[in-house]
Amino acid sequence: MSRLVEFRKLEQELAAQLAELEALKNDSGLQQEMEFENKLRALLGEYGFSLRNIIDILDPQASVRRTPAPVAEKAPRKARGVKVYRNPNNDEIIETKGGNHTRLKQWKAEFGSDVVESWRTQ
Q1: At the N or C end, where does the chain have fewer CB atoms within 10 A?
Q2: Whole-prediction pTM value?
Q3: How buried is residue 107: exposed, middle or buried, by Cβ count under 10 Å (0-12/13-18/19+)?
């Protein structure tokens, strides 16, 4: 489609929309609705209310329907305590917060988990 044809087509659509807009402006029903909205907004401003407040007053169940389900807040995790292990064979000390310590794993492999846990001082 040429640019000129496209221009003429858009011009016609615009003219049709402008005619429709003028018809709406002269519609008495629309005038009444606009007047009502203006008065309502002025009244809400005078008393410090919002439309949401009015909806909650007139239909309390509406707020229940429109609000999403509350997300349960998780309590923050408790920080892990430091575990201290002391090897009685060589008095080596390991301080760790978890069980992923390389030297601790070596001890558990060598001496057994139960024995190493008995070395725990804290």
Answers
A1: N
A2: 0.39
A3: buried
